[in-house]
Amino acid sequence: MSVASRKAEHSANLSGTSAETAGQIRRALRDGGSAEHAAGVQWFFKEEIKSHGWYTGDLRRAVRRVRREILRQHDFEFLTRAADELFSGSNLEEKVAGVFLLEGLDEQFGDREFRLFDAWLDRISSWADHDGLVHYLIAPMMAAKPARAKAVFLWAKSQNRWRRRAACVALIRGARQKMFFPEIVKLSNALLSEEDDMVQKGLGWLLRETAKFDAKRTVPYLMKIRERAPRLVLRTACETLPAAVKQRVLTPSGTASRIGKRKSKL
Question: Which stretches of the chain score pLDDT less than 70?
Answer without folding.
Answer: 1-15, 254-266
